[in-house]
Specification:
Blueprint lengths: L2 H4 L1 H15 L11 H11 L4 H14 L3 H6 L2 H8 L5 H17 L8 H5 L6 H12 L8 H11 L7 H11 L8 H14 L18 H5 L14 E12 L2 E6 L10 E2 L2 E3 L6 H13 L3 E14 L2 E12 L10 E4 L11 H19 L1
The structure holds iron/sulfur cluster (SF4).
Iron/sulfur cluster binds next to helix 10 and helix 13.
């Protein structure tokens, strides 16, 4: 039997003591409010603590509790989430808040199955909310915890669902029946601060005595890095102005970036010039030819598996476009702030704002 399997009490003592001394002060950690923990965990699923902080503060100012979130218009929810990406997560927060208010008297259920049934409550969020908010003994398995445990086990495979099962069995004897909240957060924090993907600080690690990868001398090779392959896409949009207002349109309610707003346009087909794409897309979408196109800016952004180069053209339309009342709007530049946009469009808007400011100063 290895030392790891023999000594769960020391393992727990070491990690909990380390956490007591080194845990970062984070806004949501001052609270056991399940709503705050839920929101913070959903936001942290996709990015780092530093990146999440301003979004979390703004969210809590706008929707301080489940009731206010449940009553909010969906466009306001998307607008407040704008910039975090993975917009389906914001929609699920919104949908789940309505169910919690309607069916659970505004209280987040503490029953695993009831919670798991709510939109957006996958295994990770369910375990995180139940353990951190209610101290229920459910282990969480995020990227940080996965990395720490794989290295401790010396597991060289891929970080996937099959590996998670192995890690959960490994963790079982170490997992406390009480103090699940701090134990889970301690492992997450250790992964974020010490057992980093590159250059882990093994000499400062409270679990080095338990760690097979440390003994083997090359922890960085675990887990095997995932190759992320992006598909490169060129897209063009038309910035059309009429009487001081810009034309925007709403994306369909299903699919990628659903219900967000954008400038009219679309993807470049193989062999097309950017201007040919602009003419084709605007003819398809607005049934009008484009006049005097002038390239304003090229911005880059990435979402899911796509890396997009987005070219914004200032232009006029040869005739009045066919617009739908639900889908299209003419909006002033300051008015665009009320609409949720994907990050590529948001960069174009920022450029337009800066240009307008510079013109005023001349
Ligand atoms: S000893 Fe190093 S590799 Fe092992 S858990 Fe600690 S930081 Fe990670």
């Amino acid at each position: 039997m290895s030392r790891n399997e023999k000594d769960p009490a020391t393992f727990r003592k070491k990690i909990l003591r380390w956490y007591e001394r080194h845990a970062r002060e984070l806004l949501w950690r001052n609270s056991r409010d399940p709503y705050k923990i839920w929101v913070s965990e959903v936001m942290l699923q996709q990015t780092t603590v530093q990146a999440v902080l301003p979004y979390y503060q703004e969210w809590m100012k706008t929707f301080p509790d489940i009731e206010s979130l449940s009553r909010a218009p969906s466009q306001k929810v998307l607008k407040t989430w704008q910039g975090l990406g993975y917009y389906q997560r914001a929609k699920n927060l919104h949908k789940a808040s309505k169910i919690i208010v309607d069916k659970h008297q505004g209280l987040i259920p503490q029953d695993y199955d009831e919670l798991r049934d709510l939109p957006g409550f996958g295994p990770y969020i369910t375990a995180a909310v139940l353990s951190i908010a209610f101290d229920r003994p459910f282990p969480v398995m995020d990227a940080n915890v996965r990395r720490v445990l794989m290295r401790i086990m010396g597991a060289r495979g891929k970080a996937d669902a099959k590996m998670d099962q192995k890690l959960l069995s490994f963790l079982k004897p170490y997992f406390p029946q009480k103090k699940a909240a701090v134990f889970n957060q301690a492992l997450m924090e250790l992964g974020a601060l010490v057992c980093r993907p590159k250059n882990p600080s093994c000499l400062l690690c409270p679990l080095s005595d338990f760690c097979q990868a440390f003994k083997d001398g090359n922890p960085e090779v675990i887990p095997r890095p995932k190759k992320r392959e992006y598909r490169k896409i060129d897209a063009v949009v038309a910035v059309v102005e009429k009487n001081g207002r810009l034309l925007i349109q709403k994306r369909p309610p299903q699919g990628l970036l659903a219900d967000l707003w954008e400038f009219p346009g679309g993807k470049r087909k193989t062999g097309e010039t950017l201007e040919e794409t602009l003419q084709r897309e605007i003819m398809e979408e607005l049934q009008s030819q484009v006049l005097d196109p002038k390239l304003l800016i090229k911005v880059r952004h990435a979402y899911t598996q796509y890396q997009v180069s987005l070219y914004a053209f200032q232009c006029r339309l040869a005739k009045d476009p066919n617009l739908s009342k639900n889908r299209h709007r003419w909006v002033t530049l300051p008015g665009l702030r009320d609409y949720p946009f994907p990050s590529g469009s948001a960069k174009i808007i920022k450029f337009l704002e800066q240009r307008a400011k510079a013109k005023k100063q001349i």
